[in-house]
Specification:
The complex is a heterotrimer of chains A (153), B (417) and C (573).
Chain A: H1 3-8, H2 17-27, H3 35-45, H4 49-58, E1 70-75, H5 78-81, H6 85-96, E2 109-114, E3 126-128, E4 131-133, H7 138-151
Parallel strand pairs in A: 1-2
Antiparallel strand pairs in A: 1-3, 3-4
Helix pairs in contact in A: 3-4, 6-7
Chain B: H1 18-23, H2 28-35, H3 38-48, H4 60-69, E1 76-81, H5 90-97, H6 100-113, E2 117-122, H7 127-142, E3 158-163, H8 173-180, E4 204-208, H9 209-221, H10 223-227, E5 230-231, E6 234-235, E7 237-244, E8 250-255, H11 260-267, E9 277-282, E10 289-291, H12 301-304, E11 315-320, H13 325-339, H14 345-362, H15 368-384, H16 388-392, H17 395-403, H18 405-410
Parallel strand pairs in B: 1-2, 1-4, 2-3, 7-11
Antiparallel strand pairs in B: 5-6, 7-8, 9-10, 9-11
Helix pairs in contact in B: 2-6, 2-9, 3-4, 3-6, 6-9, 13-14, 14-15, 15-17
Chain C: E1 2-6, E2 9-13, H1 19-25, E3 49-52, E4 59-60, E5 71-73, H2 77-92, H3 108-115, E6 139-141, H4 151-159, E7 166-168, E8 175-177, H5 194-198, E9 204-206, H6 210-217, E10 223-228, H7 236-239, H8 249-259, E11 263-266, H9 267-287, E12 294-295, H10 300-309, H11 323-339, E13 346-352, H12 356-361, E14 377-380, H13 381-391, H14 412-415, H15 422-436, E15 454-461, E16 464-472, H16 474-485, E17 493-497, H17 515-531, H18 541-551, H19 557-563
Parallel strand pairs in C: 1-5, 10-11, 10-13, 12-17, 13-14, 16-17
Antiparallel strand pairs in C: 1-2, 3-4, 3-5, 6-9, 7-8, 15-16
Classes of the chains: A alpha+beta (153), B alpha/beta (417), C alpha/beta (573).
Chain lengths: 153, 417, 573
């Protein structure tokens, strides 16, 4: 959807800023907010660009920089850590050929650490594109990744 | 050992079916409340001695009375579903398995306190929970449990859903309010408290998901009867999020007063893979690490108070003896370093220094001076930080300095200064 | 009244007093860092913590109100240790090379560390060095010295309504920057310098040009001219050990002569001239169906604001240059002819209460000969006080000297330019008399005086009643400008000053400006006015002389060329 159309769906209220930013990111394949979009959002909401930037810089789900089509977030907190999350990180890095914090060259995947995803009853866990995967094993991770690879033409 | 007061429907009904909820006694308490005098509802809650389940354990009735006393045309009820404390997943469990309970609880409180609008603030990572709540709100509106003239009474109340965007500190009351207002989640100076000047400058009552779902239960069984469950000053049941190196991880509902050991070894089935328990972190990242010999401690806010942290959210993270205390503490401190809002000095700068000091212990390059420094810094942060995050983040260090001091000293080179 | 005990001393203070103020009222000083009396409560730095009986944690005294029977300790070992620890934490993430910092000995952090007796830091330095913003002629932002106290954000957002700066990011990476971490020149920053005047450390400071001035003063081939803005004479004394509100005009002239300036002139002269030109412009607009309301143009912060944020109303702004630039233009044309020098051999320095003046002087339009800037260097009041310190002069003991001529004779109308409402009052003193052919009943227009954000008055001119308004600080200006922009302004003439209190509260004034300071400086300003033999600009013999000898007539061809300018949209896309 065109940004102007999207903006039209939001009232000129500061309290909808975070929703709006999340929405913009969701619509885009590379899940980030550009300078131009920040300007338009600031104008629409009626706040300064600095204000919009402070919001984006504060929340981990919002980004200034282009990310992969699929953003993979891996929990790094204790309940997952003591249940082999490191082996999941290793598997993913090897599988995708990138380090944590990087995006694959074809722009398909980004690897990020995340704070606890709240699935400590089924560790280790990761979240891809709004879906959480639990009870991960290296084999399971391989299957999930190839499934995502298969999705894109 | 379990006592299912608020989790009885979980896993039993179809959470997306309002009919299932109604058939199992749902919205009866709201119907009852709408026929009661407002003060009677407040009295029932007061009789129940219900305490907030977010971790700090304030008396719910005190906060409710605070809001009820406020006049003015706008008053808000906010459901805090920003469950980000590592090791906690009971709010997600409640939302995903029995979401109407939350709405019913909020509507009852709103009626009793004359609040007119509600928000549910869910952390952005809880994608499924958000979907469930979106559907649930639609259904509740369609069946007139929300909106204008609820159940044909003259009471009107609606709820909006707001999603976080990745920030742990937004679980703190004022940070959450700031976030709903569309700002970075940085807390405000207290007082005034939210019940007098809160969301959009209006009186606001913020309650945790688990606290809210207790409200219908209390109205159904009566406050006095409710207060007989659990411990004398810590009534009712508690959802425990059990995780770590334990066999049966999951959410368990127990009456207050059960020992931690019983939860781990009877409900949880003990330690996985025949390993030995080394320690337990209570409450989550902001909670203390306690050694095996303290496991007979009863789950009870009064007993948790000595830790001066949000121990009471109900997480129990079991760690077996393969893991290094300092490695885990570094993880805890790094978590808070990452999640600190950056506003106040002790929290913004303190965590970076705690990381450096802990690294020295991990590298066995610490001196006795470092031991004094880490202890002093942790205490200053605990005493001076602006909000609960910085006040409770040093709990892991303060508790291990108490219960695992030998391990610190083992890693000190006593000959260097 | 509330009874409480602080450090075992029984005190009685009014309800709702904070512990900090209760202590200060009773001569107990609790150190602070982020706290600034005029600004919003930050409560971020946590330096002012105290111990309260019955409370487990320590409480910040700036935010905690007194309660009956409260027992407070401001100096227990626990409190002192906490303060020291927090200060060490701040220093661990701060470029603490103090002797290489312009704020050395004026720095609130340095003074705090000194008071707490910090002679070593237990914590490792963790500063990650970031680039310094030297993008503009007015202000320098050095993030390596920033302690994230939030004062600059508050003054920029809540006093000026600009919101150029924000706390970005979180945790240890949090930093105060404009959007995208850009430089100030890429932002719609007005360079008002209010951030610099409240910064407790050296993280935002004016672009220091004192070295350039020293160099010019000792260049044998150069004739140096200095002009002094109205607001400097009521504030410079503070920075040099005199009481707030001291009037130091004569000493200031002596000091500037001692520094070596060949000619010491008064910007008040061109303030009088401004009134004549602007007054005629107003009358011209009123009688010729011109664009109204007309808005004043003396304040470069306001001009920056209008050009960047309200380009659609630029035709409302008087085309008159500011007094500083009128002076520069006359100095490099009229005066160079008198002394038979080439503009390139003449250096014009301004002493201004303002950081935005540094930018104004560098504008392209401000070159009367098309090559050289009319004003070469602008120093703030603070920079001048620094030069006087460097020179080693005992300012208080200096004799008084009058300004040089021909730009030395001025009126009380010019003297009040420095206070909010002053330009309006000065203009009305003249316009009323010119139109109505009789003097104002009372020469003092008290309706437009004082520190209310927006003030208004109405005056009868030629049988019609016109309304006039005055705003100071940009958040108040916005209210009036929005009316202009949407066509609902009921006023004929509006005065806007960017800084709170007007130029006496400018961003280049001595540190520690609070509401009380502004009041004292304003009081001094009106005392000056009262003490002047002439109090209306059109009565100034110097002004009459320059029209006779050089300019011809107000709004005439030469005036138009030298004393008027134009504005252009600089909206950031």
């Amino acid at each position: 959807m065109d940004l102007t159309q999207l903006l039209a769906q939001y009232p000129h209220e500061e309290n909808r800023l975070i929703d709006l930013l999340l929405d913009i990111q969701k619509q885009k394949n590379n899940h980030f907010i550009s300078e131009q979009e920040i300007q338009m959002v600031a104008k629409h909401i009626g706040v300064s660009e600095a204000k919009v930037c402070s919001v984006i810089s504060f929340y981990t789900l919002l980004s200034f920089h282009p990310r992969g089509r699929y953003v993979i977030q891996i929990c790094r907190d204790i309940p997952c850590h003591i249940n082999h999350s490191a082996s999941i990180v290793g598997t993913l890095e090897q599988l995708l050929g990138i380090q944590m914090g990087q995006t694959t060259q074809n722009g398909l995947f980004s690897l990020e650490y995340s704070s606890c995803l709240g699935h400590c009853d089924a560790p280790p866990s990761m979240r891809i594109d709004g879906r959480t995967y639990v009870h991960l094993t290296p084999d399971k991770v391989k299957a999930i990744i190839s499934e995502y690879r298969g999705r894109t033409p | 050992m379990e006592r299912k007061l608020i989790s009885a429907r979980c896993g039993v009904i179809n959470p997306l079916s309002i009919d299932d909820y109604i058939k199992t006694g749902g919205y009866v308490a709201l119907r009852k409340a709408l026929r009661m005098e407002r003060i009677e509802i407040l009295e029932e809650i007061s009789d129940s001695k219900l305490r907030g389940r977010g971790g700090a354990g304030f008396l719910t009735s005190t906060k409710m009375m605070g809001l009820a006393k406020e006049s003015g045309p706008m008053k808000y009820i906010v459901c805090n579903a920003d469950e980000g404390e590592p090791g906690n997943f009971k709010d997600r469990f409640l939302i995903e398995n029995d979401p109407h309970q939350i709405i019913e609880g909020m509507a009852i409180i709103a009626f009793a306190t004359r609040a007119n609008h509600g928000y549910i603030y869910v952390r952005g990572e809880y994608d499924h929970a958000i979907e469930v709540l979106q559907w649930t709100l639609l259904e509740a509106r369609k069946h007139k449990f929300l909106g204008n003239n609820i159940m044909d009474s003259d009471f009107s109340f609606d709820i909006e859903l707001r999603s976080g965007a990745g920030s742990y500190v937004c679980g703190e009351e004022f940070a959450l309010i700031e976030s709903i207002e569309g700002k970075p989640g940085r807390t405000r100076v207290k007082p005034p408290f939210p019940t007098s000047i809160g969301l959009f400058g209006k009186p606001t009552l913020i309650q945790n998901v688990e606290t809210l779902v207790n409200i219908p239960a209390i109205l159904t069984m009566g406050g006095k009867a409710y207060s007989k469950i659990g411990m004398p000053n810590c009534t009712g049941t508690k959802l425990i999020s059990l995780s770590g190196n334990v066999k049966n991880k999951g959410v368990y509902e127990i009456p207050f007063g059960i020992s931690i050991r019983k939860v781990i070894f009877e409900l949880g089935g003990g330690i996985e893979n025949n390993k030995k328990l080394k320690m337990v972190q209570l409450g989550g990242a902001c909670g203390p690490f306690i050694p095996e010999y303290m496991l007979d401690m009863l789950i009870d806010y009064e007993r948790f108070e000595e830790f001066e942290s949000k121990t009471g959210a109900g997480a129990i993270i079991v760690v077996d003896d393969r893991f290094d205390l300092f490695d885990l503490m570094l993880r805890v401190v790094r978590f808070f370093e990452h999640e600190s809002c950056g506003k106040c000095t002790p929290c913004r700068e303190g965590h970076a220094q705690l990381v450096i000091l802990l690294q020295k212990f991990i590298d066995k390059k610490a001196s006795m001076k470092d031991l004094i420094s880490i202890e002093s810094l942790a205490r200053v942060m605990h005493q001076t930080a602006l909000c609960g995050l910085g006040q409770s983040s040093p709990t892991a260090i303060i508790s291990t300095l108490r219960y695992f001091r030998d391990e610190y000293i083992d890693r000190c080179d006593i000959w260097t200064n | 009244m509330i009874q409480l005990k602080i450090n075992n001393i029984e005190l009685s203070v009014p309800e709702k007093t904070t512990i900090l103020n209760a202590a200060r009222m009773n001569n107990i000083n609790i150190p602070t860092l982020c706290y600034y009396p005029d600004l919003g409560l930050q409560s971020d730095c946590r330096i002012c913590v105290v111990e309260i009986d019955g409370q487990k944690g320590l409480a910040t005294s700036c935010s905690t109100k007194v309660r009956e029977g409260m027992v407070v300790k401001t100096n227990s070992p626990r409190v002192l240790n906490a303060r020291k620890t927090i200060t060490e934490l701040i220093l661990s993430n701060h470029d603490a090379n103090c002797t290489a910092c312009p704020k050395n000995l004026k720095c609130e952090l340095q003074s705090l560390a000194n008071k707490l007796g910090i002679d070593q830091n237990r914590f490792e330095p963790v500063l990650r060095v970031k680039p310094i913003d030297t993008s503009n002629p007015s202000l320098i932002r050095n993030p390596n010295r920033c302690i994230k106290c939030g004062r600059c954000i508050d003054v920029c957002k809540n006093v000026q309504g600009m919101n150029v700066l924000e706390l970005m990011g979180r945790g240890h990476d949090a930093e105060i920057t404009p959007a995208y971490g850009r430089f100030l020149s890429d932002e719609s920053c007005t360079y008002c310098g209010q951030c610099a005047s409240v910064c407790p450390v050296g993280a935002i400071i004016e672009n220091d040009e004192t070295d350039r001035v020293w160099k010019q003063l000792h260049d044998k081939d150069k004739t140096t001219i200095v002009q002094v803005a109205p607001a400097v004479r009521v504030s410079l004394g503070e920075a040099l050990g005199l009481p707030i509100g001291s009037i130091v005009t004569g000493k200031l002239v002596t000091a500037l002569k001692l520094l070596g300036f060949h000619y010491v002139f008064d910007t008040d002269f061109t303030a009088d001239l401004t009134i004549i030109e602007e007054g005629h412009e107003l009358l011209h607009r009123v009688t010729n169906n011109g664009v109204l309301p007309m808005i004043t143009s003396c304040c470069p912060g306001w001009i920056n604001y209008a050009e960047q944020r309200y380009p659609s109303i630029l035709s409302h702004i008087s085309t008159c240059k500011s007094p500083q630039q009128m002076f520069g233009a006359l100095a490099k044309t009229y005066f160079t002819k008198i002394i038979q020098k080439e503009p390139k051999d003449v250096i014009v320095v301004s002493i201004m209460p303002c950081t935005a003046k540094k930018y104004e002087a560098k504008r392209d339009e401000m070159k009367s000969d098309g090559i050289h800037q009319d004003v070469d260097i602008v120093l703030t009041t603070r920079e001048l006080s620094k030069m006087l310190d460097q020179m080693g002069v005992d300012f208080a003991k200096l004799d008084e000297t009058p300004f040089d001529n021909p730009f030395g004779i001025t009126t009380g109308a010019a003297a009040i330019f420095g206070a909010t409402g002053g330009v309006m009052e000065a203009a009305l003193r003249t316009v009323y008399e010119v139109v109505n052919h009789q003097p104002l009943e009372s020469i003092e227009l008290t309706e437009v005086r004082g520190l209310d954000g927006i003030k208004e008055t109405s005056v009868e001119l030629g049988g019609n009643v016109y309304r006039f308004a005055v705003a100071h600080s940009l958040s108040n200006a916005k209210t009036l400008v929005d009316q202009v922009s949407n066509g609902t302004s009921p006023y004929t003439f509006i005065e806007i000053m960017c800084c709170p209190g007007g130029c006496i509260g400018g961003g280049g004034q001595p540190y520690g400006t609070i509401q009380k300071t502004r009041r004292d400086r304003i009081e001094a300003t009106y005392l000056l006015d009262q003490s002047m033999p002439l109090r209306k600009s059109h009565e100034s013999p110097a002004v009459k002389e320059i029209y006779r000898a050089f300019l011809g007539e107000p709004l005439g061809e030469l005036s138009h060329k030298l004393l008027h300018t134009h504005y252009h949209s600089r909206q950031h896309t």
